[in-house]
């Protein structure tokens, strides 16, 4: 009911009487008044006048289904589940994926209590200044072909940031979103699969949006950055998330159509890895080499100093001069 009232107020864009709303929705005027107060508690600014009724003025920047607009018929984000606080959006996305939720379901949280990075690392996401979300996918693909989905996700993110804010980010293979050598965001892709069959994939994305430097834990303060720190002003999380979801729908369709080359070309445009000297931690060994390109399955091709060309699908790479490798 609350959301139906909000929809009417937004569509009207001028004063509408409590009576008209109550008639349209077949509820009492007291009920309308109660729901309007709840909307105000949610952060909406709604003006009221005893003579004219109610008028919608401003929405809060909460990235939930009320504030994220996506094109009609889009599957990514057709269902958006928003939480004030959660352990990890990836955990919840995996839970509902196991229970059979639809392809494209998105889980967003204002805060995560145990946000995760890769291989057991922590992801600091204890403030609602960031954008923390996970997308459930059900691709008809072989597990070994999935790596390109993470690359496609980073393309969706950097293109959306460029389109909505005019900020050009870099991507460090495979999943770090970088500005000025500092980490703006990361992607954690997890899957449930059997040999030859993927049950689901969860793509978890974290983007530092409106944090100031002091929001970051001391340990990551030197290497983390937010969009606000870069742009000098607060950015709209709902706008950006809407744009990422729409871009993701497009690149994901590309993946299904086998347009890996096009996606990798777009990824390479933003890469801060290709052509650089990198250090690879791979199967308990360390190699130094030059990152040459990304193969069509998403693996990084590195010409190592020992003369061997290695194709890296997982593990760690550090780029010389970036986040630690100097
Ligand atoms: C990542 O891991 O970069 C993947 C991060 C994915 C986070 C999203 S949020 C929504 C979804 N739900 C989750 O629980 N996770 C996903 P990795 O490459 O392992 O990088 C982790 C490292 O980044 C840490 O060890 C820190 O050094 C650094 N770090 C942690 N929090 C950060 C932050 N907010 N900004 C920048 N760097 C951070």
Describe it for me?
This protein has 326 residues and is an alpha+beta fold. It folds into 3 domains: 2-58, Arc Repressor Mutant, subunit A, CATH 1.10.10.10; 80-270, Bira Bifunctional Protein, Domain 2 (BirA Bifunctional Protein, domain 2, 2-Layer Sandwich), CATH 3.30.930.10; 277-321, SH3 type barrels, CATH 2.30.30.100. The chain is built from 8 helices and 14 strands. The protein has helices at residues 2-12, 18-25, 29-41, 89-98, 147-165, 227-231, 237-256, 260-270; strands at residues 45-49, 53-58, 80-86, 106-112, 131-137, 170-172, 176-179, 182-194, 197-207, 277-282, 285-294, 300-304, 309-312, 316-319. Strands 3-4-5-9-8-7-6 form a 7-stranded mixed beta sheet, with helices on both faces. Strands 13-12-11-10-14 form a 5-stranded antiparallel beta sheet, with no helix packed on it. The protein has a two-stranded antiparallel sheet with strand order 1-2. Residues 88-90, 112, 115-118, 121-125, 132-134, 175-176, 183, 186-188, 204-206, 208, 220, 224 line the site of biotinyl-5-AMP. Biotinyl-5-AMP binds at residues 88-90, 112, 115-118, 121-125, 132-134, 175-176, 183, 186-188, 204-206, 208, 220, 224. It catalyses: biotin + L-lysyl-[protein] + ATP = N(6)-biotinyl-L-lysyl-[protein] + AMP + diphosphate + H(+). Its EC number is 6.3.4.15. GO terms for molecular function: ATP binding; biotin--[biotin carboxyl-carrier protein] ligase activity; DNA binding; transferase activity. One of its GO terms (cellular component) is cytoplasm. It comes from Ruminiclostridium papyrosolvens DSM 2782.
